[in-house]
# Entry
Amino acid sequence: MTPTSVLIVDDNVELAENLGEVLADEGYPCEIEATGSGAIRRIEQKEYGLIITDLRMHGTDGLAVAAAARRRTPPTPVVMITAFACDPQLEAARAVGVADVFTKPVDTSVLVALVKQRISHGDG
Amino acid sequence: MPTFLPDIKAYLGFDDHDSAVLASLLPMMTAHFPDISEHFYARILAHPGAHASITGGEEQVERLKRTLVEWMESGLRGPHDQAFYERRARIGRRHVTIGLPQHYMVTAIGVMRQDYERVISKVLAQDPVAQARAMQALHRLFDIELAIMLQTYRIDSEERLRRGERLVTIGMIAAGIGHDLRNPLGVIESSVFLLRRQVEDDRGRRHLDKINNQVHRCNRIVTALLELAGSRAPNFVEVDANEMLRSAMGSVPVPDGVRVDTDAAKGVVMRGDATLLEQVVINLVTNSIEALQNRAHGHISVRIHPYDSERYAITVADDGPGFEPELLPRVFEPLVTSRASGIGLGLALVRNVAERHCGAAQAQNRPEGGAIVTVLLPSDPAAQAARGPATSS
# Structure
């Protein structure tokens, strides 16, 4: 059975919490993680249906989180969120298998629709 | 305005007697002014480097000739006082605005000197002493003219440079603030999203809608700031022309008395960055609205239509005063503006977007009056990019 829980990684905790609440209302249990290193620990211990991560964070960034998600078998799909549309690191994100990239501002309803699609299809 | 007029006058030995000599020349010189003016502009038009700064065609040349006659008259009439200095200083600044290379001022004054000398030697042929005295006063006058023009030219171009540097700094600060505002705006947006599910009553929902609209508006402002501060890579997608026009016009407050018609021809295939193209329309319409300020009625027409087999055009035309002819070739440059309130970024961003789509932007004055800006864009920017970009004019 496809896991349905979502890990949301953002050093802006209020933003992550809000998104978690929205997704929980849609029936997806969410966990919030404020740091990249904490997220990697969780990913190594548990299988998530989807990981939503900010790209730029202090310390361990979203790229490392995405790489950890890819190391799982099967890889966990990742949605990357960035403030910079032409961030040079987006190339690197694609290289580690990130298919979905959102530029801030992210429209919550659009993100919800994508989460539904990704978790029900189980692809990423 | 600080003046160095007394200083140059003292240096050159120009005094009230020179002013009197020059004034006495006015009656005999007046008849020759039109010829001197003709010759002056014939020389400029024959010279590509100087000609380049005259872009308004014959009409502008005729106007400039008349202005030159007035310039010659006031130079002889005097008084050579502060008001004279300030009028001359404006000419120096004007030359910076139209981008005339500085050395043409020296050569142009040289042409004037020769023509005056030729006329003086004829009209005062019988009186060598008066002739010498007249030429002395004239040379002093021309040296003063030149010193003022060169001085104000330098001050003004330094000021423009400083403005440019200031703008880069402002751009960096704006970009920083823009990024920092994204996160709080994201929290507000998602909190509103959550609250909408809780709030049942109409009044509460109406206010949530208002918050949401304002958050979107703030996001658009942040996007515009970031857009100006740096050039992100455009995201080419299929754009629905009508949808784009509707969305753009939703962001522009149109004052009473101004009518805006929008029209997108059927079958126009637009591939481009929807946000950037919308910004082009917003900037052009905003410019037209500002040009129509202080008029009871105005009309703006926004059209999207096929241009040729590979390109389509976005045109925005208005029935305002049009562009100043002298500024026309440079309206797309940053910081070039004729408005006191503007800093001259709107059209710069239009050209920037056109070029990032491998297209071009053109500004013209319409024969029937008013301005028209045409943004030519390839139907397939990616294919155009492979062939090389078009140029803006």
User: Anything to note?
Assistant: Chain A has one domain: 6-121.
